[in-house]
Amino acid sequence: MSAFRPGVTNLVPAGTLSPFVSSPVARGRVLKIARIAKTKENGKEKENIFFNRDWEEEFFFTEVKDKCVCLICGSTVAIPKRHNVERHYTTAHPSFHTNFPAGSALRVEKARELKAALVKQQSFFTRPGKKSKKATEASFRAANYLIKNKRAFTDGDVLKGAMMIIAETVFKDEKNGSDVISSLSDVQLGASTVARRLSAMSENMSEQLDQDLRECKWFSLQCDESVDNSSIAQLMVFIRMVFADFSTKEELLALLPLKTTTRGIDIYEVMKKFLSREKSASGEARLNNN
After folding, report:
1. Helices marked H in 149-242 — which ranges?
2. What PANTHER family does the annotation carry (predicted)?
3. Is 121 domain-assigned?
């Protein structure tokens, strides 16, 4: 068993005591060492104080996001020290010690009941945030579906209207039907929203492609010339990347217009300008990162 050394923060892990410490007084001293540890930061001694789980039944306090919170009234204690917690308990809730005697099963049950009520209250406030995230994800997925099927941005409103009619018909008499209908109504599919979603997805895909280009070890380019609906020749540039683990990946690198003719020299000049522009852009990005 190692000797006690002042200034060491990990003498006794939180919530554990040495089996060799049998005396209640000695165990209390060891617990104090485990809960209050002194460290040095910037040449100054700093005291790190941690919440004691025994205070949940002793003083009806719990820890919420590194804060000491009273289970009875919801008040917080700035510094989680025993005398601060005890002072609040004895002054603000003196009747609890009489109604719920220390060490009794009634006191333990009351502490669990209050803590369960606090957890339920916290979940009530976090649920809308989760609901909003799912609605946003559904909006992104629906926008992606519309574009894959070559639909206009304004078709998002039509899609949502049809979706609401189906939901109100199918889930109206179900147990959680109102929650399902409410969740679907939160999904935004207006034309401007769909445009923003597609812009965000495009930026994300460009960032992923840039990351792959930085990480790949070898690559090859392939060009294919075609004509779009407006009779303008377009040069599609594909890239195949090989990574350090010899895995491969193919992506569409660029779509370059051929404004004049489509001869070999024209394709060469367009590719040369594109690669020169990308090289200078990547060089500027490295300078900005440094």
Report:
1. 155-170, 177-185, 191-215
2. DUF4371 DOMAIN-CONTAINING PROTEIN, EPM2A-INTERACTING PROTEIN 1
3. no
Token pair 């929203």 is found at 193
The residue out of 177, 192, 207 marking a domain boundary is 192
In a structure prediction context, what are the per-residue pLDDT tens digits for the chain, which is 290 residues long? 444 444 444 444 444 444 444 444 444 443 443 344 444 444 555 445 566 677 777 777 877 766 788 877 877 776 767 777 777 877 878 777 777 877 778 778 888 888 887 777 666 555 555 677 888 888 999 999 998 998 998 899 899 899 889 888 888 888 778 878 888 888 888 889 999 999 999 899 888 988 898 899 999 998 888 887 778 888 999 999 999 999 999 998 888 988 888 888 888 888 888 888 877 766 555 545 54
Contact indicator for 60, 73 with CB cutoff of 8 Å:
no
Kind of pairing, strands 76-77 and 218-227? unpaired
Domain of residue 38, residue span: 1-50
Same domain? 188 vs 224: no
Whole-structure pTM value: 0.47
Phi, psi of 197 (to 5 degrees): -60, -45
- Same domain for 220 and 285? yes
Return all residues near 13 (Cβ < 8 A) that are at least 6 apart. Answer: 34
